[in-house]
Amino acid sequence: MTRHNIGKTTGLGFAAALGFALAAGVAPTALAQTMDAALARAYAGNPTLNAQRASVRATNENVPQALSGYRPRITASADIGASITDTRLPALGNSTTRLGPRGAGVQIDQNIFDGGKTRSSVSQAESLVLGARATLQNTEQNVLLDAATSYMNVLRDTAILDLNRNNVEVLEEQLRQTRDRFQVGEVTRTDVAQAEARLSQAQSQAILAESNLKTSIARYRQNVGTEPRQLAPGRPVEKFLPRSLPAALNAALSSHPAIVASLHGVDAAELQVKVTEADLYPTLGVRGLVQQRYDTQQFGDNRTSASIVGTLTIPIYEGGQVYSRTRQAKETAGQRRIEVDTQRDTVRAAVVSAWGAHDAAKAQIIAAQAQVQAAETALAGVREEAKVGQRTTLDVLNAQQELVIARSTLVTAQRDRVVASYAVLSAIGRLSAETLKLRAQIYDARKHYDQVKGLLWGTQTPDGR
Fold first, then answer.
1. Which of 174, 207, 341, 405 has the most beta carbons within 10 angstroms of its beta carbon?
2. Residue 305's beta-bridge partner residues?
3. Which region holds residue 137: left if phi is over 0, alpha if psi is between -120 and 50, else beta?
4. What are phi and psi of 463, to 5 degrees?
5. Distance from first CA to last CA of the chain, Å, rounded?
6. 185-194, 257-266, 380-389, range with greatest mean pLDDT
7. How far apart are CA 323 and CA 326, in angstroms?
8. Measured between alpha carbons, how far is 170 from 173 in angstroms, rounded to an integer?
9. Are 333 and 392 in contact (CB under 8 A)?
10. What are phi and psi of 96, to 5 degrees?
11. What is the C-alpha radius of gyration for the chain, rounded to an integer number of angstroms?
């Protein structure tokens, strides 16, 4: 963050100079860390976002698992043993037969018809993948919004801490002047006590501001992954926002990732009904078997057998379990439909709230700037009037406090405008690394899906694990 020298008499100019480059378009210094750089780092390394990416990759594996229903099942078996048969016949006497029965075989089972269960399972798995991708987009929005908020909180709290520290310096000078005037009899002991009380209050506020800054730095470290170093002014992303609230609502309700994820959840739940119902339908399959056996009846014999059999299985009664699971799946599908409406209402409320906060922040900046100018003029006037005895020490202290409050309000309003613009972009579902054009490698969730969809064997993941 760029710092400015502040004189004790003028006081607290940092708040007015901060401005977050909203209107002046101040360029960040060469060594400063920019908002885009912080967001790019959060996009690349945030643990929450990386965990969600891993979750999407795990969900991708549902598709090859479902596709396995179309493929044959091949099993091999082998056995070996020993047998001794002791035979006693009255006419022939005793005889002992020792055999080593052994053999190996291969069995192939191929599904022909399973009531549409495999087809529905594949469609369900693909819906879950699409839903997981939408959830990932929503998580990306939340991570970027948290990072932007943390960035601006550090800027705000640094500015407020500087305001309070400069206020302490100004009040220390005010107390020194008041004590000098008390020594010559120009003011009373009451004036000195008032200056001392106001200085103690300012010192307490500075300590609190420092604590708030430490908290914001910790949140920044959590969300971005590094300690903040010379943060450059933040800028709102208003150029990416719709022109009006109705347009923002239309954009959000049509494409917000949370709503899209809910809709895919409905598809998956409805397909689960079909998957469950398929257990009530007949199944048709083919089984092929090849076996090689040795020493089955007498020593040295060798037998080879092969068979191919078509199987038809017709369920008659399953104790009511399948019927119950089907009814249960239908109720779950109904629940998912209701959740879509709930999600739409949540998104709508978020858009309206963020849009209102953004408009309010812009209006507050204008009001706060006027408040700062008026407070500066009032403080200068009160100081001059106090020199000729027309104002008391308390009047000067009150004017000084009003200026501190006004500048703190301006700093907060400028922070709120930037954060609110990111909040609106998130609320309509467009806060992403691609929209912001961050200098980061964009994660492509489809790449892993294409890698694993057609895999027939192998336990290694595409990244080699």
1. 174
2. 291
3. alpha
4. -90, 5
5. 42
6. 257-266
7. 5
8. 5
9. no
10. -125, 130
11. 38
pLDDT on residue 31: 58
The kind and range of the H/E element at 424 are helix 393-427
Q: What region, left, alpha or beta, does residue 116 occupy, with left being phi > 0 and alpha being psi -120 to 50 degrees?
A: left
Give me the domains of the chain, ranges plus CATH numbers: 13-453 (1.20.1600.10)
Q: Tokens 């919004």, residue?
A: 145
Structure-token match 């089972």, residue found: 109
Cα–Cα dist 138/263, whole Å: 14
Q: Which residues of 118-138 are buried (b: 16+ CB within 10 A; e: fewer)?
A: bbbbbbbbbbbbbbbbbbbbb
Q: What is the pTM of this model?
A: 0.84
Task: Kindly state the helix (H) or strand (E) to which residue 66 belongs, with its residue range.
Answer: helix 62-67
Contact 332, 272 (CB under 8 A): yes
Q: Tell me the average pLDDT across 210-228.
A: 94
Place of tokens 């006037």: 381
Q: How far apart are CA 48 and CA 16, in angstroms?
A: 36
Per DSSP (E only), the strands in 262-368 are 283-294, 302-313
Q: Residue 229 — φ and ψ, nearest 5°? A: -135, 115
Q: For 256-292, what is each residue's pLDDT tens digit?
A: 999 999 999 999 999 999 999 999 999 999 999 999 9
Residue appearing with tokens 């204008």: 366
The whole-number average pLDDT for the span 324-331 is: 95
Amino acid at 29: T
